[in-house]
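User: structure tokens for P21-activated protein kinase-interacting protein 1, please.
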Amino acid sequence: MAAVVELVAGSYEQVAFGYRVKTDEEEWISKADFTHHAHTASISAVAASERFVVTGSKDETIQLYDMKKRIEHGVLLHHDGTITCLEFYGTSHLLSGGEDGLLCVWSTKKWECLKSIKAHKGHVTSLSVHPSGKLALSVGTDKTLRTWNLINGRSAFIKNIKQNAHIVRWSPDGNKYVVVVDDTVNIYDLETASVTGTITNPKRISSIKFLNNSILAVAGDDEILRLCELGKEKSVCEFKAHETRVKAVDSFDMEDYCVVVTASNDGFIKMWKLLLKEELDPPTLLGEVNTTARLTCLAVWKPSSVQQITEEPAAQATTSEELAQELSKTKRVRITMEEVILEDEIPRMPVFLILTRWWRVSVYVKKTNSLTGFSVLSVSSSVLVMAVDWIGFCYAVLVSAGGVTGYVKAGSTASLAAGLLFGLLAAAGAYLASQNPKNVWLSLGTSGSLTVVMGLRFVNSWKFMPAGFMALASGMMVVKIITGMLKTPHKSS
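Assistant: Done. Predicted tokens:
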């Protein structure tokens, strides 16, 4: 009988690793539980709740895993850029941030996006949820620290900082928070929102973790892990954790001690036993595992009510290459999404599948049993949010067909070339409008030019087909675009 503890790590190799740890022995043993080729680009973030583990990637997707049912649960797609940070609040909500500047709040019940907030003008680099669940902090590349009221989804406070911060974390009691800028940890008091102390690390800081309200574990671009006391504003214990730089640090509590988990570029995940007392002694190594991959992020899955499980035969771990070969058989996953966009934020887009971005659709159609150790059950949910300018694409086909018709009937090479050229421009314009309703200038220029050209031809010939028909269709397209521009909401002043 052993307590359930799962170490989940992401890597540059696009693979998520899961290791089950036996915690009832003197020397902890980690066994491979799953190895999953989760993404089409390197994994940039991972988070765990009591039931779910989620991974975010540079491929702009968030993968979901149900750790209790032991199935791949689906994919979330809303961000337009790298997923930079993920954090659960309890078992009910997930927050995500990305390079598109968005901060999204997801319900874990139906995996709906409850709010999508334009949090920063640049990238969102880090976020942290207050223990009460009512506030969240975010930092970004616009040199601001923002406090968010999660009740109404609005910005509660904005603080300008001199440099771009890349990490922000609340303390466990919620009375203070820390902001990391390069090699410096700035300690803030909640009531005054001012810096009360500063801790400097010899190297750029890559990851931090509160072990309790006063001890902060700091990992940097070297092999040393430092345990810093906020009251003394300095490192009180440090030790060599890995042979190369430490990329991520996490922790969990046992009955009478704390377990610090570290991951490194050298591929090792290590577990350290630390007694949290007045005078900290260097921790002792409980166990380690070599993933042979370049690790980027780390999370510990440990249910709050620790389960006891019977020993099961370990599933045979597979390599990422074997899993990649299994992706040929597909199964579509999809859920609906309710999006609440603030009135002073980005414009709302209709919810459709954009067929032209086939490379992103491919993310959704993966074989559900590609996760070794997880049963083949129905994949329950993912999000697909894309806007499609169907009228624009139909107009592009019409223009191209007109050019081909002119060539077939009259042998006009000029009509064929013009039809294909303007059809291509119209299709490109429709694609741009699908990505952003404000990107209508190519469509407007194409349809406007054709309105003038075909209108002049109609005046000279007074033949409705094809000149008059094309002029009418192009004119209607111009009216449609201008009407859409007038309806598109703008930022409030």
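User: Anything notable?

Assistant: The domain at 2-328 is CATH 2.130.10.10 (Methylamine Dehydrogenase; Chain H).
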